[in-house]
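FAQ: What does the model actually see?

It sees only this:
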Amino acid sequence: MNKYELAVVLNAKIDDDARADALEKVKALIEKSGGTITNIDEWGKRRLAYEIQKMREGYYYFIQFDASSDAPAQIEQRVRIMEPVIRYLCVRQDA
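And it is asked to produce this:
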């Protein structure tokens, strides 16, 4: 099992329920891929470094999890097509 961190930026224009639902879907994807979530760090609404899809703000979440080496590819494949996700990045953390 490797340690990973998934950074997700969600659309700031959606309501709180839709944002919570999108976060639950991401967590379910991690668990479905055989991952175990260890920590979720919510940064809240922040200004983006540059405009993306005519948006200047987004909600930032950092999800740390343990998973096998093939899990990040499966997770990214599903997160990529989620409507409220503006940006995402999954990186392996050094032990």
